[in-house]
Amino acid sequence: MSSFKRDNKEEDDGGNPWQNLEKTSVLQETRMFNETPVNARKCTHILTKILYLLNQGEVLGTREATECFFAMTKLFQSKDVVMRRMVYLGIKELSPIADDVIIVTSSLTKDMTGKEDLYRAPAIRALCSITDSTMLQAVERYMKQCIVDRNAPVSSGALVSSLHLASTAGEVVKRWANEAQEALNSDNIMVQYHGLGLLYHIRKADRLALTKLVYKLTHQNLRSPYATCFLIRIACKIMEEEDASGNAIEESPLFNFVECSLRNKSEMVVYEAAHAMVNLKRTKPRELSTAVSILQLFCGSSKATLRFAAVRTMNKVAMLHPPAVNVCNLDLEGLIADSNRSVATLAITTLLKTGAESSVER
Amino acid sequence: MDALMEPTLYTIKGMCILDNDGNRILAKYYDKNVFPTVKEQRAYEKNLFNKTHRADAEIIMLDGLTCVYKSNVDLFFYVMGSTQENELILLSVLNCLYDTIAMILKKNVEKRAVLENLDIVMLAFDEICDGGIILDADPSSVMKRVDLRNDDIPIGEQTVAQVLQSAKEQLKWSLLK
């Protein structure tokens, strides 16, 4: 009897209040959106239900989605912050399915140029999800302003949205290189990262401009570890292309930059650099051993992810240059019994390439 | 070849939260090539859950994706990326997702609390990753932008104990930040 009671209680505790939602009845509830004044709390709850259903994989037909979308536009009357944010989310989720979504353009443009910073960044991202290349020209002026905005989320939001749009409206986005360049100087690490991402996208077809940009940035010490990782990748790509075309310079400043990044204070960057050096064809044995010794240090980390990253990269080195990894055999042996199975497996396969049988048996 | 992979900001393939039966609480997938339909997503989640729910191992390679994960009481948090991706970047996103949610829920990271604050958790997803690009990986800055709830009961109608409690909470969090 007592166990029955407990079961019952457990069910109550773990009960999912969103579980038994029915699509049609939730869509009916959106009628509530038409009421004035808007009951923000109830409407937020209904919006959450809709988003939850979509997230669980429920499919809405075009008509259902369109009706829901239009009902949602009524909610712009209210100033409730959480609800407004949920409306933006709803717009993003429904815009691929619903018709005539451009109806909210003016509301979103108003929010994105308004005073409330909490609205501006997400409004930009929502706006760009409903915009196509022709409409983009109408908001181009605002986009440029937002990219160089002092508020970091606004700037990041605009940069990331521009990148999304670059696949459909590449020509328009290409004109924003100056703004992206300015974002690159931002103190905010994410803005710098997104600025570099957009600028790379704009410049990547132009070899000369890209090389110039990368050479300049390698001297600049980017604050953002994310941006630095990205820069390492671009530098590697340029070096590989130089190697492939046969006019490689022996002592490339780009290679020096990657090597210097091994001493960066961010673990993320150090690993990215070590990984890059291992994969570059031009890396000489001496340089390779520096990179490997860094990876060796990571093998003893308490973070499983770091150990995994290190062994995975060593595994790659072992395929090409088994002797370079020999020095780490002891560390690798220690990882055979690692609590993470992926780490253990990688350690064994790496040892099979470098060590003698005896080390695996031990 | 890793080195020749086109540099891109599209780092995240997916993020999800599952409960301790492997059911989806919230999930976002950003790459139509990897997960074209909900069916593939569900299948992947199931597979992932089976492989990870016993071992508290932080990282796994599964079906051509690197997945970092973390669990707490009855919840599992996952962040997925390509196998070529820098694992530490993925980990920074996972930590941000987890820490943000822990702050939103005031440390009670469990299924019930997530479901009760589902709207805010959805906003957190949206502020961390936009279409596969990492938007922000700093929990306190994400938190600032998503936790916009104001207490519903007007201050005059709260009991003294409630006021004290909320003041205490606020002080605690301002110190922790």
UniProtKB/TrEMBL annotation, chain B:
The keyword Transport is assigned to this record: yes
SUPFAM superfamilies recorded: SNARE-like
GO cellular component, one term: Golgi membrane
Coiled coil: none
Residues covered by the AP complex mu/sigma subunit domain: 12-151
Membrane topology type: Peripheral membrane protein
Compartment(s) of residence: Cytoplasm; Golgi apparatus membrane; Cytoplasmic vesicle, COPI-coated vesicle membrane
Pfam family of the protein (one): Clat_adaptor_s
Alphabetical list of InterPro entries matching this protein: AP_mu_sigma_su, Coatomer_zeta, Longin-like_dom_sf
Purpose of the protein: The coatomer is a cytosolic protein complex that binds to dilysine motifs and reversibly associates with Golgi non-clathrin-coated vesicles, which further mediate biosynthetic protein transport from the ER, via the Golgi up to the trans Golgi network. Coatomer complex is required for budding from Golgi membranes, and is essential for the retrograde Golgi-to-ER transport of dilysine-tagged proteins. The zeta subunit may be involved in regulating the coat assembly and, hence, the rate of biosynthetic protein transport due to its association-dissociation properties with the coatomer complex.
Subunit text: Oligomeric complex that consists of at least the alpha, beta, beta', gamma, delta, epsilon and zeta subunits.
Name recorded for this polypeptide: Coatomer subunit zeta
